[in-house]
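Lab notebook page, bench 4
Experiment: in silico fold of construct C2
Operator: M.H.
Input chain length: 175 residues
Purpose: comparison with the prior construct
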Amino acid sequence: MNQYNHLIAFDLSSYGAALALVNQFVDNDGCRDFELSPCGTSAQLILLVRDALSLKVIREQASSLLKSQILDVQTVENINSQLLPCYLSQTKTSLQKKLYVFEGIFVASGLALMQELLSQGAQPVDFRVVRTSPKNVILTVTGESALDTTAAGRLQFKTTVIDSIQPSLKEFFQV
């Protein structure tokens, strides 16, 4: 999977729209599907792409093909090595000095936000998708210092910052 350095994520109004995009773009060479999931009455689709130019082409063509069915679309270039393991709940991080919780409704925007947070040095704790209609996407990260959370507002995520984490909260996150 390391040959795919970029991703494009869609939140769509129907599962059929997601299948149409897979049919149109996935060739298992330059573009492969990472996840296709129904979520209540909508769907999410994550495609892995080899080159940045293809990301732009896919985004433009998908918008042209299914514009009215795309609820959100985000691209991530040069995927941070922690992003997909975090999304798949494969990370184990001890809480540091600060805890950040971001809550929104689009997986695509959640992936873009997590990429931004990781680029600032945040450590991923959890990437949770409650697959209801509407979805609830919860990102949790930790760090020793303050993070720039302006991207969260732009991507329509509510932000909660918890300073000076107490032992009882640390225990909550230990497995």
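Observations: Strands lie at 6-12, 31-39, 42-49, 70-76, 98-104, 123-130, 136-143, 158-162. The CA atoms of residues 34 and 47 lie 5 Å apart.
Next step: discuss at group meeting.
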